[in-house]
Amino acid sequence: AYERRFPTCPLIPMFVASDIVNEYKSDDEAIHVIERCCKLDIDAPRLLKKIAGVDYVYFVQKNSLNRRERTLHIEAFNETFSNRIVINEHCCYTVHPDNEDWTCFEQSASLDIKSFFGFESTVEKIAMKQYTSNIKKGKEIIEYYLKQLEEEGITFVPRWTPPVACKLESSTSHTRRPISPAINIPDSATKEGLSSKEILNTSGSPAEPTAGTPDDKLDADYIKRYLGDLTPMQESCLIRLRQWLQETHKGKIPKDEHILRFLRARDFNIDKAREILCQSLTWRKQHQVDYILDTWNPPQVLQDYYAGGWHHHDKDGRPLYVLRLGQMDTKGLVRALGEEALLRYVLSINEEGLRRCEENTKVFGRPISSWTCLVDLEGLNMRHLWRPGVKALLRIIEVVEANYPETLGRLLILRAPRVFPVLWTLVSPFIDDNTRKKFLIYAGNDYQGPGGLLDYIDKEIIPDFLGGECMCEVPEGGLVPKSLYRTAEELENEDLKLWTETIYQSASVFKGAPHEVLIQIVDASSVITWDFDVCKGDIVFNIFHSKRAPQPPKKESLGAHSITSPGGNNVQLIDKVWQLGRDYSMVESPLICKEGESVQGSHVTRWPGFYILQWKFHSMPACAATNLPRVDDVLASLQVSSHKCKVMYYTEVIGSEDFRGSMTSLESSHSGFSQLSAATTSSSQSHSSSMISR
Q1: What is the helix (H) or strand (E) element at residue 602, kind and residue range?
Q2: Based on CB atoms within 10 Å of each CB, which residue in 140, 154, 159, 543 is the most buried?
Q3: How far apart are CA 351 and CA 373, in angstroms?
Q4: What's the rounded Cα separation, in Å, for the pair 694 and 678?
Q5: Fold category of 504-550+569-619+643-660 in CATH
Q6: Which residue range or ranges hold the GOLD domain (predicted)?
């Protein structure tokens, strides 16, 4: 299709003519290179052409087709005025690594104007205009010729295969893969000792498909059924981010629907989506949000006075949550429960919303990834603008926005009173622009008219308190008795208890001040297991053994970094006078862990004594050839502010007879994202040495 634009293309008026100046074909016909001289009639002012003394400009274009690798590279540079202007353009067509039915296209160009008769800025504008129009038309032109080929009955071009003679010559050195659906095997799989049989079966598909999702994540039916309409670019972003998560958060990646929410929240910018998703996964893990529905029971005060609950679904099949905010005593709830208990209750509501979305997806047979919220403001007054209450509301919005993006499909605000604009002014700056667009606000009884509630909710399920016929089981709220109020000290202790009920601990790691954990082993052949996330910076993980116990650090000699702080603890156990090899020994090779990685592993102890787990600041190595650091290293080091790293970790000692492999032992310690993760973790064999999995 691309070759059809030569020797000239009616869809590109400025492309007047072209001549082949050089051509090369390899003996096996896999490589075909054509070099052409192209004549262009640039859309430039007549005066500029007259000053330059030319009517046309000439470019050299080199097309390199590699049928073996299935790539087409296109290079172009200007021949006219090459001593004054240097234009280089590069385009590339390749096969998508995860789906061979997709073609990837990349294009880049550079412009360097040295001098042009004083018209440098004009020439720059002309060049940018031409280049922009070419980009916009490129896809249109290739589709035009593809359609032309289809009309001629050409819908398939056989793949290149080597001639018989070449096959015989190369059979000992090259083995071609069978034509089958593309599958990406992470490098980490081979590093952990999986054989090729474990990774692929004979048909080329995954040997053990991920539980709860179709075998082929790119299958059109799967996309339509569970994910909705996605462009090829959006599908590609999803695959790339999921693959990165598989490599760094092994065995604990969220479902595609959840990954997709974060991509949509950042307009499919992979880097930005990856950043907020990693932060959210770490937050979920630290506060055990995955288990909140099973392990946390809301206080009776919330069950009686929190005027909100789930109520059927809207016309699009989204779960419907009803909140009678005007009837709720926010001041009383905050005084009786505290900010953290309210936040945890809202988190449980969001977790229930995710579960209901999955159920409705199955019921309605189409992807439902968000819910509708109906907020009734009848009764809203100045009491709701109580400052601590508003502060709690803003905190809740902040946490929900960060960890549940794109879960709100629509927000219907009904019977907004005069005081509402004041509340909206306080709250709206904290709400994401995309979320704000989903708000529909009705004053008085406007919701009963055209464009009102009936456009979004079936008449049969409109709640009775809004004039409907459906009985709504949402609590009516009311004033919380002052006898249930608690003192600030009681609330503070309760809040602390709520958010410290976690098996994970946080630690800060500084340059020159590692964080160390002491584990005493009485019985040889015990198993030390660990599970940690690198929240910030890059660290080196080490395990040491010593026959004698290190002296516990004294508070007065800890130094600036060895203190408990909001960012986490920092404890150093290895005495500065200790010598490696004499006082203690290294029992594992150092493991470099990058920011955002989740690491699990285990070590079978050979001797009793004292084992020290150490998280150490990772300094970028200087260039081997010189003493000067590389530019990449300098830029990377600048990203770690104040030479500080943060880790969140959990350790456990298990008897060898109870140990069933790294991942299964950690599962018993509540490791992983049970609700969001659809991945299964198989039990690996226990080795006499350690196992580390990322």
Answers
A1: strand 598-604
A2: 543
A3: 15
A4: 17
A5: Jelly Rolls (2.60.120)
A6: 500-653
